[in-house]
Fold this protein.
Amino acid sequence: MKKGDRISGIIEKIEFPNKGILYAEEEKVVIKNALPGQKVLAAVSKKRKGKSEGRLLEVLEPSPLETAEDPCPHFGLCGGCLYQTIPYETQLEIKEKQVRELLDAVCGDYPFEGIKASPISGAYRNKMEFSFGDAEKGGPLCLGMHKRGSFYDVVNADHCRIVHEDFRKLLTATRTYFAGLNVPFYRKLQHEGYLRHLLVRRAVKTGEILAALVTTGQTECLPKEEAAVLEEWKKLILELKLEGTVSGLLHIRNDSLADVVQDDGTEILFGQDFFYEELLGLRFRITPFSFFQTNSLGAEVLYDTVRSYVGDTEGKVVFDLYSGTGTIAQILAPVAEKVVGVEIVEEAVEAARENAAQNGLSNCEFIAGDVLKVVGGLTDKPDLIILDPPRDGVHPKALNQIIDFGVERMVYVSCKPTSLQRDLIILQERGYRVERVCCVDMFPGTANVETVVLLSKLNTKQHIEVELNLDELDLTDVEKKTTYEEIRGICS
Ligand SMILES: C[S@@+](CC[C@H](N)C(=O)[O-])C[C@H]1O[C@@H](n2cnc3c(N)ncnc32)[C@H](O)[C@@H]1O
């Protein structure tokens, strides 16, 4: 087998997040986005010992797992979802197995409590960033998701199954309006054009909607004054028959070269630049750029799990690191002595402070800053720590500083089990033991999953036991005790 060869065969399994595994000539080849059980044709794109990769060319035969009724019509073309053709129960089994395999490789024996399903498996997302573009060069204006495996092409997502009907109405109306005006989308290579993204957030509990049109400042592309174009768009959206209510319509300027929704100035076209969502009886004000879990009903399951893993917080000082809009902090605050949240996005920190005040919680402190820079200077002494880092996990230097607090219990919430796997190696090396693990599926149809881990600090005896694995040695209890004591003597 060499680079460029065509290979075909059955995908044996899928590793997190989307790595289909095919064995060709007894070699493991990773084929992204191929599903277990599919017979595929692929082209070898990288050939390295034990690390070969192939590009999926064609699915020759579907997988016996692909029995979902009425899957999303965009599936396959759209890069958003991976598992739309697989029934939800089977998706859960796949994700659970992936996380178990990753943790088994680094954790030895630990209690794994399975995977909790999202309360709803369709129309669950409260946020989407739709992109403007075209599906093929020079094709009609599209508004939706990036085509699977493509950085440039965009496909429409008018029938997207993971969002509420209101999202779809906003998307279709916006695309039809701008296509009718012949307004060009922003071309990333040429840095030309006007339309970039449509950001939509819709609270599940309150039905409040915040939508933002993100454009460049290249107003010379417009057929008339920008203000008139935006005014018409606003009217059109406000006239839509929606189940929810529009709380705010925004125009966000973004002239950056990177393909991200970035704020170079926001104009409120209608209403306000925030909306409210409710979780576990608390109310949260959410601004366009602050992190908020994208599946509100799933977030209640996640936070409830975190609360049960944290256990007794009465009279305790809790650190909520990577706190976003302060959701976990506020869920724990009613019983705790004090909760300190640290979050890098200032807007989220302000929202967290306001939310805590509105929820009548006076024992929460929110600090704006990078955990890496802030954590060493915190003056409170924590009894418990919650870690809910972004996808890359905790910076190794920050993790060591966090471990130095020496708390008895930590709860690590992870949205990327491969990063969690890496961080668990350090946590265990430095004396923590994995006490409980479970997954919470917040992202049906897609490859993602949340994992919650309870870690407890080992005492010296337990630490020695784990390090030396004394149980594996054929020692009597008396010999073990003597060994502990000798080692403890050496250590001290
Ligand atoms: C997975 S979210 C968790 C947020 C929150 N715990 C929740 O459940 O809503 C991770 C958060 O970490 C923040 N973040 C990313 N890097 C950070 C850093 N270096 N220091 C502090 N916060 C950071 C992000 O802005 C985001 O709000």
About this structure: The CA atoms of residues 73 and 438 lie 32 Å apart. The pocket of S-adenosylmethionine is lined by residues 291-293, 322-325, 327-328, 342-345, 348, 370-372, 388-390, 415 (CB under 6 Å).
